[in-house]
Amino acid sequence: MKRAKLDEMTKGWFVGDFTPTLYKTTDCEVAVKHYKKGDAEEKHFHRIATELTVIVKGRVRMFEEIFEEGDIVIVEPGEATAFEALEDSINVVVKLPGAKNDKYLGGNEVC
What we know:
five-stranded antiparallel beta sheet; single chain; mainly beta
């Protein structure tokens, strides 16, 4: 049995091929992300990974749409979106596969 704290992980990421991690794998990456109202991430995309975001609490804007508790957003490789927390929010994010250095700032790319 192991025990850890989410706040000991980098930006909520606790499964993947990075340090620190609780389970080292290249198969996927998993995070629990906490955002304060107004927190934002620049528009970006992944060339390899598919990213699944579950809105556990709060409301967020992605793809110029509003998502709320219970919504799941699937972002395919090459699709670009920015992120904004419209209120305090908690998301679970899964990236498949876990692909290092697969975050590109800016708009969509044809893959």
